[in-house]
Amino acid sequence: MELRSNEFKARAAANLGDAKLQKGLGLIKVKAVVNRAGAVAEFGDFESLREAGKAIRNRALADLDLYLECFEREATARGAVVHWAENASEACRIVVDIAKQNGVKTVAKSKSMVSEEVGLNDALIEAGIEPIETDLGEYILQINDAEPPSHIVMPVIHKTAEDVADLFHAKHGTPRKTDPAALTREAREILRPKFMSADMGVSGANFLVAETGSTLIVTNEGNGRLCTTLPRLHVALTGIEKVVPTLEDVTTLLRLLPRSATGQAITNYVSLHTGPKRLEESDGPQQFHIVLVDNGRAKLLAGEMREMLRCIRCGACMNHCPVYQAVGGHAYGWVYPGPMGNILTPSYVGLENAVQLPNAATMCNQCGVVCPVKIPLPDLMRKLREEQMQRGLKPWQERLGLALWGWAAQRPALYAFGTRIAARFMKWLGGDEKLIHRLPLATGWTDGRDFPAPAGKTFRELYKRSKR
Ligand code: SF4
């Protein structure tokens, strides 16, 4: 996927003016936020569950190497083949090699963010292999000239039913229909023969279970099951951080994930894959390959952003983020949007290539409050902002301004004098209207709205007066 994270501001500004997109994004508040709140209230002590989820993910990360080795041992003992990919190109090469060695012509894919991250579809196409997205949202994006997803759980949230109706009519050559159920049926009729004829199925994995060597996926559409059981080969492509020690741990995380993602107590399908088809079994793939992708995760584990590896990809942070709700996922310019992307993208592609993202947040901590595994997202963004300054990645005016502010803030008398002058100056700027139309040195604040003029006195002055 092409990296365009440094265009965040321009793309966000364009998206703010896109009425159709704004309508689609409004659905997030209606659906995801309200549904999650209902599911959490119904559950009861969700805070204890979050603590338990955090503890499980921390335990897995503390001994990640041991759990991964255990996973490999158990998966291999049950007939799966485990591959290790250090980076995106190695992950693609492994999957393409498996496909070529087995004469694969078509690949049925269920939803996998790691496959987006490593650019698997492009690699398959380059090798002459046809990838077919079978998640409805991903399928819509694929036939729309391989448009990238805008949300990790609801990839097509930026599109209306009318958009999909036009697309299906144009691409399928069928009569135009707008009823979502009819559109879904049409996609199903087109996809069903592709499942039947695909040589290889590619899935992600929501979790890897160390004690059994199993991969686990949660889906609502059933396409995941078809991808992983009908083709003669199944390849699960996932990040190394997804491992958890036991099946018991997975059951705890499964209580957290759907409730946080869509407000469901459980998804329609929870599929556990343990090895390929056995002799006595009638269904399942003849070969089961698991590709464990590092692609920057080991580096994250050793650094300040380590807590981000707890992420279970529920999307709750973006659903509740006022910035994401306003600008949509495409503004973030890479695979992972919203608060989790503000940390993951700079961590994986380099801060200099996603320099605006840690600032794409109001620091309201909505994301931190809803994160099912208690990742302190604002704290991590703040650390990245510090790194921006230390590495000189922000404009010199901003760095100079903050350096001057820092210098003055350490001198209380000077600081009090400066703020007294500034408060009076801003009151004067507001005039009779008491509104500042253009703030000097901070025009971004007033480009789209007026700034209320302050009272002309500093907080300290007002506080002193009120005490008197
Ligand atoms: S950071 Fe937390 S809230 Fe956001 S996707 Fe990951 S687990 Fe979910």
Return Rg in Å: 25 Å
Q: What is the global morphology?
A: globular
Ligands in the model, by name, code or SMILES, are:
iron/sulfur cluster
Question: Which architecture name of the domain at 63-252 and 264-298 does CATH use?
Answer: 3-Layer(aba) Sandwich
- The overall average pLDDT, rounded, is 95
Largest sheet properties: 6 strands, parallel
CATH-level-4 superfamily name of the domain at 63-252 and 264-298: NagB/RpiA/CoA transferase-like
Task: Give the structural class.
Answer: alpha/beta
* Stretches with pLDDT under 50, minimum 5 residues: none
Question: In CATH terms, what is the fold-level topology of the domain at 63-252 and 264-298?
Answer: Rossmann fold
| Strand order in the largest sheet | 1-10-7-4-2-3
Could you explain how this protein is built, in words?
The model has no long low-confidence stretch (mean pLDDT 95). By secondary structure, the chain is of the alpha/beta class. The protein is globular. Among the domains are: 63-252 and 264-298, NagB/RpiA/CoA transferase-like (Rossmann fold, 3-Layer(aba) Sandwich), CATH 3.40.50; 396-467, no CATH class. Helix 3 packs across helix 12, helix 9 (161-172) packs across helix 10 (180-197) and helix 16 (338-349) packs parallel to helix 18. A hairpin with a 4-residue loop joins strand 5 and strand 6. The strands form three sheets. It has a six-stranded parallel β-sheet with strand order 1-10-7-4-2-3, sandwiched between helices. 52% of the residues lie in helices and 11% in strands. Bound molecules: iron/sulfur cluster. Iron/sulfur cluster (SF4) binds at residues 260, 311-317, 340, 370-373, 375.
